[in-house]
Amino acid sequence: MIKAxxxxxxxxxxxxxxxxxxxxxSAIRAMIDLGLPVTFEEAYQVLTEVVKEFGSNYEYHFDQMxxxxxxxxxxxxxxxxxxxxxHDIKFxxxxxxxxxxxxxxxxxxxEVKIIILTDGDALKQYxxxxxxxxxxxxxxxxxxxxxxxxxxxxxxFELPLQRANIQAREAIYIGDNYERDIVPCMKLGMRxxxxxxxxxxxxxxxxxxxxxxxxxxxxLKDLIPIIKELNKKE
Amino acid sequence: MIKAxxxxxxxxxxxxxxxxxxxxxSAIRAMIDLGLPVTFEEAYQVLTEVVKEFGSNYEYHFDQMxxxxxxxxxxxxxxxxxxxxxHDIKFxxxxxxxxxxxxxxxxxxxEVKIIILTDGDALKQYxxxxxxxxxxxxxxxxxxxxxxxxxxxxxxFELPLQRANIQAREAIYIGDNYERDIVPCMKLGMRxxxxxxxxxxxxxxxxxxxxxxxxxxxxLKDLIPIIKELNKKE
Lengths: 234, 234
Prior knowledge:
- By secondary structure, chain A is of the alpha/beta class.
- Chain A folds into two domains: 4-14 and 96-233, HAD superfamily/HAD-like (Rossmann fold); 17-93, DNA polymerase, domain 1 (Orthogonal Bundle).
- Helices cover 53% and strands 12% of the residues of chain A.
- Chain A contains eleven helices and six strands.
- At the A-B interface, helix 4 and helix 6 of A face helix 4 and helix 6 of B.
């Protein structure tokens, strides 16, 4: 009996990678408009390197980009312009993937709890959840920074189970990242769904793995017949 | 000969106090909509106290407000909701006072440099300047955090003079705060204009002071005939 569906947030419920790319490109254009003496392509290449090296949740991408470009003047002005453009794009364009809300509504009808479990900074993740207007659907929200445990540590995945007082086999986890989302579920005996979302889905890499997720989907709505089938059996 | 007009930013070039009040009220409404179990009036009173005690540029007003209200659950969710509402109000409604841009245009015609000198966090102050779209008018921007000197230290007011290579008597400073804006100008021999902007203008207090600003204005545009008159004499 599946009692809870636990979702990753970024690139599972909304198009994080695509949106960040769009926002970063807009940020560079804003800095160049203000006089940053580099070409768009040069800056974008350096920024992409910085994001790759420091991780996408690092606070000072634009500062580091300016350092690498050898810019010593007006740096805070450029960073400010970049951040305005970045956030304006991100927060006026953030919306759930087309299949997210319909799936949530179906889960509500089935009386399956809906939980978000995500890595990242608490304020930033809550901001995304609120701007995506997901909050009224959610039975629980677990954010790494708030609990001091990060993916792929299985202890993080145990938390929502404890808080909802359910067993691992009564939950199904849906995420887009094999190592960080699926592997810990397997360790706990929680059912797992790998959702294929554009940029991050690497078919070649997945072919080589030994232990596959329980399910692989391209549309979140296909989760509903799976849960119905599982709940019929028990 | 007046060669530069140096402006304070908050409550001189835009209505900072009014906008912050509006934004804070909206933030509290957003937190209550999410389930914060207090009345609007109770929360607003506590927030006002916090802002007064910690200063308006403090980072954690909402966190402190929640502590005082005795809220221990979902605090980061509430803070996030409050910050979204606060910033959305602030940055969709920020605009220069009606008299700011006309005055800047007249100053440009007179070939008087336009400089902003403001206290505060560099990224935040640049964000305001950029969102107000003032940047193309400005010959220099000086922000306390970037130079390590705060108002009312006269050394801060010497910086724009040094950078523009002009004397104190060749500059006129326009601000809304007697102690922080006008007093240091008097110490340096820079001409000073106190601009009366709603909330912060305290007539009773000003009557008691001994040494008055060179000018007191209610409309920034009245700066232009003053400069013209001063420049005629020399």
